[in-house]
Amino acid sequence: MDMDAAARTEWWESLPAGIRDEIDGYVLKDSLLMAVRVVTAVGRVPHGIGLGTAQLIANDRYLHYGDRIAREPESPLDLESLACRAAGCEGRIVAIEAIWDGDTVHDWFVRLLAITADPAGEAHMATVYWSTAKRYLGGEGNRHTRHPAAVAAEQAGRALADHLSVPFHFAGPDTPDDEAPRWTESAEAR
Prior knowledge:
The protein has eight helices and four strands. The chain is α+β, with helices and mostly antiparallel strands.
């Protein structure tokens, strides 16, 4: 069932206040999937609301609240901030690695990790979403043909690796791939 903006507003206003509060609660916490899930659960059977319309209704609520939504803070990508995070790592940093990840909220993004030894592990340095990359790259972000998150993560990750005098690894920076070989795997193959 397709609904135009007026029909969505009318449907929204017909909901009990408790359901509206629940959906708005998820929206204000930036939990889009949960908001869509509730809209679909209460609207599918009696009103024929499918996933597409539920997403539009949730988006209407996002537009309604705008800057009041509690967004997840973006990771800093400047060298000084990354170096400060790296200094707090447990273990000796042996590499900086960028890996692809993704979810239904952010689509594809890149995680910057410090790979450690003594003890072996990894420490989160930054998460580079599309919006984080655009902020970091500024006007330069429009000049690249690759995903902005990959470009920003590669620049910030290389700068940190150079600062720490360790290798930088990013398998498959040109195409999102959350199954690309990890640094430890490629280091063992050398």
